[in-house]
């Protein structure tokens, strides 16, 4: 049974506001615009596709805006060891309005604002889910990867994992928080860096990095950022970053390591790697402070992190991976945004322009975060 906004029967015990809400009308079409591909690396088609119907545990979201993540590029290329669904509608930073829901959904009402995240759904009954590691569930369903995502005007999501967005929120600006924001916020928590200590953001001016800088500042951390290219230093400093390292200006990695350790009086206490460079990731194990933590977030295909065993042991450093956050991390990350403490640097383009955004990502020319408007 599908419950949608078109219901008009009277339900006992509803207050007048709830009743009027059910009486309002959304028109749910059968055909919508979306971007779909049928083979990895194949053409990205902006075309008419069917509107999905929510299952009993799902909500149907009229997606207004969707952020574009580097993971979307990997899904399209199919260069990760995790099999991708084909054909596929990508996207996992979708923000919009709930226009229909399945019969078992109790935590969302029609008209609520909702976010579609990378983790579309999980079993909620395994050991990992019970411990709050829902994203590590063996049965996880992933938006824009194993489940058609938010690069369409209407998309479905498991109501348990869908993000609750406060009323009145700017949906374009909150969209990147649903993945990039939650991911870096979780990574900063995993780094175990205390207020007043140094954290390094490697890839500081990109979509994830620009948010990581802000979350770090809100958490009372001193921030050193690493990136390279036009406008990146200016963006980093405008977000409150303290020390910027342009990696393109160093002749050798050793010189850069020395500069970072000197600027932070011994090296950062934690490093958040959101870059997709093998060399940058491995270098972070060299400049991190003794007893510090290197957190791996970016996922370059077929990559490894290298750390000299002698130095690793003597410095007692910790290298750990951090995946996307759980429901609590999501709620907390959105709360920072809702209180005006986080502002995603975004550029809005039409959904039809998505192939151009992929080209910019491939060439490393992204500054901040691109967000697609599904209405065009």
UniProtKB/TrEMBL annotation:
InterPro entries, sorted: ADH-like_C (IPR013149), ADH-like_N (IPR013154), ADH_Zn_CS (IPR002328), ER (IPR020843), GroES-like_sf (IPR011032), NAD(P)-bd_dom_sf (IPR036291)
Enzyme class: oxidoreductase
SUPFAM superfamilies given in the database record: GroES-like, NAD(P)-binding Rossmann-fold domains
EC number: 1.1.1.1
GO cellular component assignments: cytoplasm
Co-factor requirement: Zn(2+)
GO terms of biological process kind: amino acid catabolic process to alcohol via Ehrlich pathway
Residues in Enoyl reductase (ER) domain copies: 41-372
Molecular function in Gene Ontology: alcohol dehydrogenase (NAD+) activity; zinc ion binding
Pfam family for this entry, one: ADH_N
Reactions the enzyme catalyzes: a primary alcohol + NAD(+) = an aldehyde + NADH + H(+)
Alphabetical UniProt keywords: Metal-binding, NAD, Oxidoreductase, Zinc
Family statement: Belongs to the zinc-containing alcohol dehydrogenase family.
Name of the protein this chain belongs to: alcohol dehydrogenase
Organism name: Arxiozyma heterogenica
């Amino acid at each position: 049974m599908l419950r949608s906004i078109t219901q008009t029967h009277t339900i006992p015990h509803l207050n007048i506001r709830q009743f009027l809400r059910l009486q309002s009308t959304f028109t749910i079409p059968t055909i919508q615009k979306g971007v779909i591909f049928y083979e990895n690396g194949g053409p990205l088609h902006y075309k008419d596709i069917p509107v999905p119907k929510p299952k009993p545990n799902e909500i149907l979201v009229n997606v207004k805006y969707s952020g574009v993540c580097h993971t979307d590029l990997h899904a399209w290329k199919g260069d990760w060891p995790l099999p991708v669904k084909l054909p596929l509608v990508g996207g996992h930073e979708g923000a919009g309005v709930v226009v229909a829901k399945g019969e078992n959904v109790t935590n969302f009402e029609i008209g609520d604002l909702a976010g579609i995240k990378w983790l579309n759904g999980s079993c909620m009954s395994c050991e990992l889910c019970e411990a709050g590691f829902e994203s590590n569930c063996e049965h996880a369903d992933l938006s824009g990867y194993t489940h058609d995502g938010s690069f369409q005007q209407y998309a479905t999501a498991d109501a348990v994992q869908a993000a609750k967005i406060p009323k009145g929120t700017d949906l374009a600006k909150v969209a990147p928080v649903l993945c990039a924001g939650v991911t870096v916020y979780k990574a900063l928590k995993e780094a175990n860096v205390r207020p007043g200590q140094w954290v390094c953001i490697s890839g500081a001016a990109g979509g994830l990095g620009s948010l990581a800088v802000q979350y770090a500042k809100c958490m009372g951390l001193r921030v050193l950022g690493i990136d390279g290219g036009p406008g990146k230093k200016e963006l980093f400093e405008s977000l409150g970053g303290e020390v910027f390292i342009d990696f393109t200006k160093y002749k050798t990695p050793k010189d850069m390591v020395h500069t970072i350790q000197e600027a932070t009086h011994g090296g950062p206490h934690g490093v958040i790697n959101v870059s997709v460079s093998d060399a940058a990731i491995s270098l972070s194990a060299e400049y991190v402070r003794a007893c510090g933590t290197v957190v791996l977030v970016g996922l370059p295909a077929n990559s490894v992190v290298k750390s000299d065993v002698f130095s690793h042991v003597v410095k007692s450093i910790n290298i750990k991976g951090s995946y996307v956050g759980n429901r609590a991390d999501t709620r907390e990350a959105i709360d920072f945004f809702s209180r005006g403490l986080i502002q995603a640097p975004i550029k809005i383009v039409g959904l039809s322009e998505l192939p151009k955004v992929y080209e910019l990502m491939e060439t490393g020319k992204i500054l901040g975060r691109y967000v697609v408007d599904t209405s065009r």
